[in-house]
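Async update (no meeting this week)

Hi team, since we skipped the sync, here's where things stand on the single-chain job. The sequence we agreed to prioritize is pasted below, unchanged from the tracker. I ran it this morning and attached the output directly underneath so nobody has to dig for it. Comments welcome in thread, and please keep replies under the output.
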Amino acid sequence: MELFGRIAFRRVPSNNWKLLVRSMLQFLGMDAEVSELKVTDPGDTTQPFAVEFQVSKANFLDWSRNQTSMSLPLAQLRIASADEDAEPGDKPVELGVPVDSTYRLKLQLPAKYTVRLPVPIALSRDFGEYHASYKMEDHMLVAERRLTIRWRELPAARVQEYLAFRRAVLA
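Output:
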């Protein structure tokens, strides 16, 4: 994912980066205004590539209802699938390239509403880690999700362990 981000930002002049991010958001199903864009140098491969921005979307939630639920916007972390029927002698489970991906969200909510936060999670395996935390600061929902995959592949005998890990990440 980092490679594609670097390529995209290198191909587009920096004065059009905000438009690029807005287009990416629209592709993901979110038509919103982008502001306070910060992008690390896409050509500096000695440092992780990072993109930070503010998003503003009027009527994101239907506040007229007594109760509503939502998925965290843009929270999809990419993680490889695996064949749950793999046998110990089968070929290894392909995890892809090692990755360290962090998602942070701050969502301003009206003062008169209460929030039921998702359950935090912390998983650590030799092949990877996943951490998710959620808290309220004043009327701001603060979420952080971090996925680290260390190995390129995993023995087929460990497919069930990996699938349980994957389900937790996607939950």
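Quick observations from my side:
Residues 33 and 56 are 5 Å apart (CA to CA).
The mean pLDDT is 88.
Reply here if anything looks off.
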